[in-house]
Structure formats: structure tokens, C-alpha cells
Specification:
Strand content: 15-25%
Strand order of the largest sheet: 3-2-1-4-5-6
CATH superfamily of the largest domain: Dihydrodipicolinate Reductase, domain 2
Structural class: alpha/beta
CATH class of the largest domain: Alpha Beta
Bound molecules: NADP nicotinamide-adenine-dinucleotide phosphate
Distance between the termini: 72 Å
Number of domains: 3
Helix content: 25-40%
CATH architecture of the largest domain: 2-Layer Sandwich
Number of strands: 18
Radius of gyration: 22 Å
């Protein structure tokens, strides 16, 4: 097999762009060189000669000597413009921008087909973990039942630092930013939106379902209450931000991003710092666990490097499952889960939204909580979900097919 030489037009020279530059310098086996670099800030000091940089995207896009565009900027709208133009011009593209992908996947898939030009994005989901190509190729025929994982390194770093090092939320976030793990806009991380964007990408390659990010129930870690963290500690659970997608036995798929309590024996409970972990469950291979760094300059750069290498062999995503699973739809109405809800002010009719209430606790001093079983669609539509002072955390156990049970209260305690 002959390998193509690649000449790269690189957009972005921040955390990941600089990581890639170093990674490429140390990988002489790959026939790739960076031609020029597109950036934004004219006043920033650069570690490379100024003539390498440009502020005009067309200088890279229209350069006939550049055959691959690597897009590593932190502006999803500009990234979309760059990627779209590059594909239309017949230049292969590698990107790490999950926000841009999640917002434009249907169009970008169609554009790859119509232009015959590849777009690869292994770094966009779980950074250094080789998940997309595995989902696309290895699980081509083995039927996947579920993927669940910690897929945002920044929030996992924050939760680890709060639990292990007793840092406050603000201190832990500042440290994640300092280390280059957080998105430029940290709201994307802490509100669970980055994990949601990655879940959109994973759903496409794991199950062949392309959906808009807004269709996935997403709860971040920005509203965790002291009562919820105390509950976790007292029960011996780890608290993690988990993204999950699961086929239902009766058909359909459920998917959500939720702060989740995990027993210490669970693989994901032991995923610390900026590491990511992804568990796949499939018909024949059974349960598999991927673990690796989910953020940072070199781990993310290494995933981009792997895509560049794949391009030299003519690799492209075929999106085979899009054809195989054309009937697959999201069914939040057919799924349920167990949750802990903590709240500061009384919520009228809260228990009525649950199919089963397991426990209720009331305390003027510490706040109130309720644990119980609730439908996924019911939770997504609950008016109290976005009320200030309300925190929702999933109790151990997967998203599962709903079993309707009359509302009943197992135990009520008041202090
Ligand atoms: N950091 C990680 O661990 C990680 C992991 C996985 C994926 N990603 C993704 O990788 C991408 C880059 O992240 P990062 O952490 O490297 O960001 P970053 O450190 O903030 O760097 C952003 C770079 O983008 C450039 N830029 C911004 N707007 C631009 C525009 N309109 N035109 C040209 N250049 C522009 C900036 O230029 P200046 O230098 O002029 O400011 C800077 O070089 C993002 O999509 C992110 O989601 C990051």
C-alpha cells in the first residue's frame, strides 16, 4: 500500500495546536509537515517564526501545496466555515471540535459523500482514547448494546480534585483551566454540554443515529449540592459525570448525560483526574473498558496524529451503521432511572412525577431530598429540574426500559 505525503494547513496554535506541533516533530516516520498556521490574535507572542503564521484563512485554504487542513481552534462557528470550505475545495480535514461536529454532523456527512473528501475527528471524543475508529470498524458487525463513560476530562478533573484534594468547585475549575483541560468557555464543560456534544458523535458511530444535541437530556456538575455530595460520601459512592447510550430490549435507544453515583467496584468509579473511561457492551465481545487521558496537549495531539496517519493510507469513515440502523430512534418515553433529588425549597407535586418514591428526607438545616424511580422523559420535562436550589444526581444503575409501577412512598424521614 502506498502512503500519501501530507502538507498541513493548521488552524489554531493553542493547547492542542502546539501539542500537535511537538508530537509531529517527534514522529519523523509520518510523512507530514506543517506548511502554515492560521491564528487570530495579531498581538500574541509566538514560539515559532512569525512568517509561519497567517490571520487570513484563505491563505491556507487556497494554497495548492496544502492538501490537509487540521482545524484546532476554539471557535465552533469559524471552525464550521473552515471545515466546510476545505471539504468543498477537496482538502481532507482533521478536527477536534466536538461542538462544531455535534451542531453540523448531518451536513458534514453529506458533504463528505458529495465531495468524496474525508473528515476525521478521533480527538473530538475522549481525546487520546481510540474510540471512534473502534466503534466504526471493530463494532461494524458485532451488535453494540450500550456505551457508557466519563467523556469529559475537565469535569472529571474537577470532581476528583473536590473529592480527593478537598478543593472548592471554583478552585478545582481554575486548576483544570490552568492545566489546559478545560474548554475556553468552561460552561461547556461544567454544564455537561461538551459531554453531550461528544455523545452525539459517539451515537453516530456506535449506533448510526444522528441527532441534535438538544434531544439528549443533559445535567452538568455546576449545580451539585452539598447534600448530594454528602449523600454520595456517606453511601460510599463515587460521583462522576456519565454519558450513556443504550438500546432498549423492545427497540429504540436512550441516551443522556447525568451526574451519576457509582459503587466503588464500578470501572468508572476509579477513573481519576483528566482521564476518560468508556465501557462498551456488545453481543459477542461482551464488556470492554477503554481508559486513557481525555484532555491535554499531547494526548489530544496524539489522536490528531493518528488521524493524519490514517489519511496517508486513504482512510475515511464510511458511516456504515447509518444505513444499517435507519429505523433507530430515541425513546426517552420508554426508559426510566433512579435518581436522588436534593432541594432547598418545597417543590409542590414533586413525588407525583415519580413512578416510585424510595425515600424522602426533610431538614430545615441541611435541605431536603427524595430518591425514587422516574421516567427519563418525565425528568427531562419536569418544571422543577431547572429551579434554583434543585440538584439531580442519578443513583447507581443503568438507564432501563420503563416498568410502570403505582407511585408509593417506601420511607419518609423528617428531622
Ligand atoms: N484542550 C484539550 O484538552 C482538548 C481536548 C480535545 C479537544 N479539544 C478541542 O480542540 C480545539 C482547540 O482547543 P485548545 O484547547 O487548543 O484551545 P486554545 O488553547 O484556546 O487555542 C485556541 C486556538 O484557536 C485560535 N483561534 C481562535 N479563533 C480563531 C479564528 N477565528 N481563526 C483562527 N484561529 C483562531 C487561537 O488563536 P490565537 O493563538 O491567535 O489566540 C488559538 O491559537 C477545540 O475545539 C477544543 O474543543 C481540546
Amino acid at each position: 500500500m502506498t502512503r500519501t505525503n501530507i502538507s498541513i494547513g493548521l488552524f489554531g496554535f493553542g493547547c492542542v495546536g502546539q501539542g500537535l506541533y511537538t508530537v509531529l516533530e517527534r514522529s519523523p516516520g509520518l510523512r507530514a509537515r506543517i506548511g502554515r498556521i492560521g491564528v487570530k490574535d495579531r498581538n500574541k507572542a509566538r514560539s515559532l517564526p512569525t512568517e509561519l503564521f497567517t490571520f487570513d484563512r484563505h491563505e491556507l485554504l487556497n494554497d495548492p501545496t496544502i492538501n490537509v487542513i487540521v482545524e484546532l481552534i476554539d471557535d465552533a462557528d469559524e471552525a464550521y466555515t473552515i471545515v466546510k470550505e476545505a471539504l468543498q475545495l477537496g482538502k481532507a480535514v482533521v478536527t477536534a471540535n466536538k461542538k462544531m461536529l455535534a451542531e453540523h454532523l448531518p451536513e458534514l456527512i453529506a458533504l463528505q459523500r458529495s465531495t468524496g473528501t474525508p473528515l476525521l475527528y478521533e480527538a473530538a471524543a475522549c481525546a487520546s482514547l481510540p474510540v471512534i475508529r473502534n466503534l466504526e470498524e471493530y463494532y461494524d458487525t458485532d451488535l453494540l448494546e450500550s456505551v457508557e463513560g466519563i467523556i469529559n476530562g475537565s469535569t472529571n478533573y474537577i470532581l476528583t480534585a473536590m473529592d480527593r484534594d478537598a478543593l472548592s468547585f471554583a478552585e478545582a475549575l481554575a486548576k483544570a483551566q490552568e492545566l489546559g483541560f478545560a474548554e475556553s468557555n468552561p460552561a461547556l464543560d461544567v454544564q455537561g454540554l461538551d459531554a453531550r456534544n461528544k455523545l452525539v458523535v459517539l451515537l453516530t458511530h456506535a449506533f448510526g443515529l444522528v441527532t441534535a444535541p438538544e434531544n439528549l437530556l443533559t445535567i452538568g456538575i455546576d449545580r451539585l449540592s452539598p447534600l448530594a455530595t454528602t449523600y454520595a460520601r456517606e453511601h460510599g459512592y463515587a460521583l462522576k459525570l456519565v454519558a450513556e447510550a443504550r438500546r432498549l430490549p423492545e427497540g429504540g435507544l436512550v441516551a443522556a448525560v447525568l451526574p451519576t453515583l457509582l459503587p466503588p467496584t464500578h470501572e468508572l468509579a476509579r477513573v481519576q483526574d483528566e482521564y476518560n473511561g468508556l465501557i462498551t457492551q456488545s453481543g459477542f465481545a461482551d464488556r470492554q473498558f477503554f481508559l486513557g487521558r481525555g484532555a491535554g496537549a499531547f494526548p489530544t495531539g496524539s489522536a490528531v496524529l493518528s488521524d493524519l496517519s490514517a489519511l496517508t493510507y486513504g482512510y475515511r469513515y464510511e458511516y456504515k451503521k447509518l444505513h444499517q440502523n435507519q429505523e433507530l430512534i430515541l425513546r426517552p418515553d420508554a426508559a426510566e432511572l433512579d435518581v436522588l433529588v436534593t432541594y432547598t425549597d418545597e417543590i409542590e407535586g414533586l413525588a407525583d412525577d415519580f413512578t416510585q418514591v424510595h425515600e424522602q428526607f426533610r431538614s430545615r438545616a441541611h435541605g431536603h431530598y427524595l430518591t425514587g424511580t422516574i421516567g427519563l422523559a418525565q425528568l427531562a420535562q419536569a418544571t422543577w429540574l431547572h429551579t434554583p436550589g434543585v440538584c439531580v444526581v442519578r443513583l447507581p444503575g443503568p438507564l432501563r426500559a420503563a416498568v410502570a409501577v403505582g407511585a408509593e412512598v417506601a420511607a419518609v424521614a423528617a428531622y
